[in-house]
Amino acid sequence: MHSDHGDVHASVRKYFMIGAALLIFTGITVAANLMHLAIPLAITVALAIAITKASMVAAVFMHLSDEKKWIYGALLLTVVFFIVLMSVPSFTNMDSIGRHEPAIGGGEHPAGH
């Protein structure tokens, strides 16, 4: 399988650009750590940087940008499972709504004890 020299040059250039972007985002990660942000904000910033870097790696180095149909299917499946898992606690709590159930270990003592 032979590739055109121009195509190879464009691919190599793209890999170097993504590599440079990953290096820049690593620097941003270090800078964010040195700013000593509040914990919720620090977690939000760290997750945003990590998601950006991971999406670049997955799209370019793992060639997932060429697999649009599969990516959208996996994303849809993830959203469905997320909704199901987030609704599981409400399904378990709806069984006992309106009924009195003693707390664990706090049950009523039988008479005579």
SS-based class: mainly alpha
What sort of overall outline do the alpha carbons produce when their principal axes are compared?
Answer: flat
- Number of DSSP strands? 0
Query: Helix share of residues?
Result: 55-70%
Instruction: Write down the Rg.
Output: 26 Å
In total, the number of domains comes to 2
Unreliable segments (pLDDT under 50, ≥5 consecutive)? none
Helix-strand pattern:
HHH
Question: Biggest β-sheet, characterized?
Answer: none
Mean pLDDT: 82
The end-to-end distance, rounded to whole angstroms, is 86 Å
Q: Beta-strand percentage? A: under 5%
Q: Given the structure, what is the number of helices?
A: 3
Structure report:
- The chain has 113 residues and is mostly helical.
- It folds into 2 domains: 1-62; 67-94.
- Helix content is 70%, strand content 0%.
- It is built from 3 helices and no strands.
- The chain has helices at residues 5-34, 39-61, 68-93.
- The radius of gyration is 26 Å and the shape is flat.
- The chain starts with a helix and ends in a 20-residue tail after the last helix.
- The mean pLDDT is 82.
Features:
113 residues, mainly alpha, 2 domains
Write the SSE topology:
Layout: H1 5-34, H2 39-61, H3 68-93
Helix pairs in contact: 1-2
